[in-house]
């Protein structure tokens, strides 16, 4: 396998060198540039576990629970084998996402070293060598796809599509303003695709469309947070991104529009697909979902525009009491509709 992966690893390393030179030529001089980390690999050996765990970003695995959303919504079509396949697909997606996060960090290492917080990431700080990350990705991703094939060829194809889109984002699309947010929304939606495929459930066009707009809005909220966080007088290009600091008003307008569209699409999903299906004993309780979603995305954008959002919105929700309360309301409404 090592020989088979060598061309892939070499190609990735060449791409990284080209991207490094591009980032160096475009990145403006800032005071943070003086905080360049120690030469990679000097701080620890590749055998240490903690830097690899940090690079895998296990706290981001919560996003992959979206794989189970079609399972919960399509419970009336579910069987035990289908549930097992969906859970196995969830584990494979966690592995695939960790590997692609590592590759993204390897590609962005120079830009991350200029960032206030990202410079502490294992590759940017020098705790892990980039060549070790490339080798792990080159070996790990084919194994994940092979295991996905054991569930079904369709699951392997959906995992491959997720990985391909993630790699395109890492190498290219993340540097195109607005497109980057849409791609992130599509990547979240791919998690629904993996779950639907693994559990062999009926496809929902309305649910997938809702997901694209909803998560594109959250991606724009993260970008808006970065632009606002630089201060009201910041100008010029954002290093490693396709945005300028003057784009703050654009990200605000597009993000709020996308979140509003997602709520309206959610209403249409209930009316066109959920209610006619007759799978819920008391479906009227599901009307609680649209206003609760509106309240949550409204809070996200309020905090982002104030400069009080200091993390990925999804990660923020895991530690935010208000988000917990709104999420509990969603769960209660779902259970009342079901029972």
UniProtKB/TrEMBL annotation:
Q: Name one Pfam family in it.
A: UbiA
Name of the molecule in the record:
Prenyltransferase
Q: Which GO terms describe its molecular function?
A: transferase activity, transferring alkyl or aryl (other than methyl) groups
Q: Look up keyword Transmembrane helix and say if it applies.
A: yes
InterPro entries on file? Prenyltransferase, UbiA_prenyltransferase, UbiA_sf
Keywords on this record? Cell membrane, Membrane, Transferase, Transmembrane, Transmembrane helix
**What's the source species for this entry?**
Phenylobacterium hankyongense
* Cellular compartment(s): Membrane
Query: Among the entry's GO cellular component annotations, what is one?
Result: plasma membrane
